[in-house]
Amino acid sequence: MERGRAALSQRLDLRQAQTLVMTPQLQQAIKLLQLSNMDLAAFVEGEIERNPLLEKPDEIPGAEGESGGERGDDPRTLDAPAPEMPASPAADSFDEIRSDRLPDDAAAGLDTDPENVFSEDGPSDAAWSGSSGGDAPTMGSWRGAGGDFDRDDRSPDQTVAKGETLRDHLVEQLWIDLQDPAERIIGMLLIDQIDEAGYLTEGTDAVAARLGCPAERVDQVLAKLQRCDPAGVFARSLAECLALQLKERDRLDPAMQAMLANLELLAKRDVAALMKACGVDREDLQDMVAEIRALDPKPGLAFVPPEPTDQPVPDILMRASPGGQGVWIIELNPDTLPRVLVNAEYYARVSKSTKRKDDREYLSECFQSANWLVKSLHQRATTILKVATEIVRQQDAFFAHGVKYLRPLVLRDIADAIGMHESTVSRVTTNKFMDTPRGLFELKYFFTASIQAADGGATHSAESVRHRVRELIAAEGAEVLSDDRIVEILKGEGVDIARRTVAKYRESLKIPSSVQRRRDKVAAL
To answer: Positive or negative CA dihedral for 94, 99, 103, 109?
Structure first.
């Protein structure tokens, strides 16, 4: 009992410990790393609106030549000299060039080391020496030999460049072809009932009931409208759409009508049943099928404006050195770099006339926030350039010879080479694009899994193996390669791969199975 009471006595201990604290400035810097160039521009615009000390260069007269104010994330506007590239095993491969320009998932861990995020070393521009040469391979999507209705073979004069919708096009023809006011009313209602592909979505009986007129009158107006351009509009089924187009070409004979009545046999590629149903031989049937494939099953889509596609703007520009000799020049895209200045002259003038304590604290906070933003933008730019330069160094064979030479690469490889944490590299490579001589690529593209070599040698990139699968199938002749046969060929080339992996790569490339490809080739013959 006595010892129990002694254990409950009070005492005072002094201990020393280290903890990581996420300051608001550090959180902002980490956030800036993973923003895309569009998101970054929006963020900087918001900061300029909130902070009266931040200005765009064009808003301050003579700002480009002044030395009193802080400069933005472009090292040309910084008073401090551009940082130097740290020593590394590949340091002799880097040549210092002009320093007048800088150029998918979230990381599992949160990088909270300020020295990791704000490394004071890094190039303002760099060129890496490696081998260059070779032509870029042609990357085309595989298409089976069998025809389908997914192709868009419309000529340029049928596109939306006319600036005219399908409804406007049909209404214009209606006012010319139909003179009776009652027929025009029926025709306008029928035009309102067609979809974007040109098909009538409501039956004539329903239209007649809505207008309170005989269904025969609606059928008569519909027959007149079905002669409108483009041929095939106002059809109520695929067979009727194709029949209208064939009728305009004067090719709707009894054999073709039988073909349209048995489109399900055409979809199944049942040649024998089609020959029997149409009463023609194989040669005539091939000609009929060719005519069907030349028709447009969705004539109204010629007037549908295409979906706007947002082309990513590259953050990094890469090009071969004019002197050749395998030197790549990597720089940041100046068009995506936000330019922002700290108006120190305005701050000094306002500070002198400020008397209230709250106003002085507000100005001091704005000045510190502005300086921190400028430094964060500069460090973001140098970090992106450092990561991109190391990616180019490690993937030089890809840029020189093509996707077959894309080597396996993970975030740790880049992080170890440049002395940063994996999470920092992950943030830098998120939503960042590089314009290269071989096309525009997201930085994440260059990080691929590895596939073991059959002979125990160097591993192969998953992307290069996927490209090889595409090449083998595209080059197959009369012999259709099964997945097992592709596995044998790849193992003969030193790639240890499983059949299910080949099937997964083939499906990701939108390539049908060997059975379907064989059927397509037989149907084409």
So the answer is: positive
| 8 Å CB contact between 453 and 495 | yes
pTM, whole model, 2 decimals? 0.52
Residues 159-303: name the CATH superfamily. RNA polymerase sigma-54 factor, core-binding domain (1.10.10.1330)
Could you tell me which residues are beta bridge partners of residue 341?
A: 55
Spatial distance between the Cα atoms of 126 and 90, rounded to a whole number of angstroms? 13
DSSP helix/strand/coil, 96:
strand
What are the backbone angles phi and psi of residue 128, rounded to the nearest 5°? -110, 135
Between β-strands 327-332 and 341-342, what pairing exists: parallel, antiparallel or unpaired? Answer: unpaired
Distances in whole angstroms, Cα of residue 213 to Cα of each of 41, 207, 209: 61, 9, 7
Q: Extract the tokens encoding 512.
A: 């049908």
CATH for 448-524, options being 1.10.3470, 1.10.287, 1.10.10, 3.10.20: 1.10.10
Tell me if 415 sits within 8 A of 425, measured CB to CB: yes
Percent of the chain with pLDDT over 90: 9
- CA–CA gap between residue 46 and residue 369 (Å, rounded): 13
What is the sign, positive or negative, of the torsion defined by CA atoms of 238, 244, 246, 252?
positive
How do residues 396-419 score in pLDDT, each as one tens digit?
888 888 887 888 888 888 999 999
